Amino acid sequence: MVKKNRPATDRLHLWLMLALTFSTGVIDAVGYLGLDRVFTGNMTGNVVLLGMAFAGGAELPILRPALALVFFMVGAALAGRVLRKAPEGWSGRTSGTLLAVTVGLTALAVYVALVDVHADEVLGSITTSVLATVMGVQAATAKRLKVAEITTVVVTSTITGLASDSRLAGGKSPFWARRASAIVLIMAGAVVGALTLSVGLWLGVAVSALLSAVVTLLGHLRHRRDRRENIAESAKESALR
């Protein structure tokens, strides 16, 4: 099947994954600053926090980072199962998993707007666990799309690649623009997430829900357009044979 629109679609997927990278920065700032120092997107941070807490680190949380780690894996596993038999690139199942992220974040934004999750340890733990679950779904979906150098949830490998492949290191700086963009965007997201806390915990979650909704809609519309064009092109080629 001829896919003349592949380059344009790949560029769109890159921008959409960068938008989700920004969203991760927002969510992690909300979780760390507003929900007892727990990362819900960056699991490396939680592993390090748990290690320090187990070693007797002063007043470091254990329960919420541990739950976030478990539920992130649950979300990633669920998305992995849904996407296992999906075709390469964006598919209807991709739209479905990202729609689940959007719905989850929207419901959580409403929840934290109506309920004081700081009033009870259990409520706060439920909030961080749900956030980690939807971020696990997002990360697994991004992994399936295979946009080079963009995972949407971490940038350590991105920073490493940017430096080790740079001209300063004797390389040719491949993907430098997207790598630099991912680093800047996750930091910008963290800035926005921290600022939203001055209004309320719900706002940062709502911002991420909105971004996820836009990504899901644009990606799905492009997928449908590509499918129509490819079907039409295949029909045209068949008619000429």
What is this structure, in a nutshell?
This protein is an all-alpha fold and 241 residues long. The protein is built from eight helices and no strands. It is 75% helix and 0% strand.
Task: Please explain how this structure is put together.
- This protein is mainly alpha-helical and 241 residues long.
- It is 75% helix and 0% strand.
- It contains 8 helices and no strands.
- The chain has helices at residues 6-34, 43-54, 63-83, 92-114, 121-145, 156-164, 176-196, 201-240.
- The longest helix has 40 residues, at 201-240.
- The radius of gyration is 19 Å and the shape is globular.
- The two termini are 14 Å apart.
- The model has no long low-confidence stretch (mean pLDDT 92).
- Global geometry: globular
Q: Percent of residues in beta strands?
A: under 5%
Global structural class: mainly alpha
State Rg.
19 Å
Distance between the termini: 14 Å
Major β-sheet annotation: none
Overall pLDDT confidence: 92
Helix segment count? 8
Count of DSSP E strands?
0
Top keywords for this entry?
single chain, 241 residues, mainly alpha, globular
List the helices and strands and how they pair.
Layout: H1 6-34, H2 43-54, H3 63-83, H4 92-114, H5 121-145, H6 156-164, H7 176-196, H8 201-240
Helix pairs in contact: 1-5, 1-7, 1-8, 2-3, 3-5, 4-5, 4-8, 6-7, 7-8
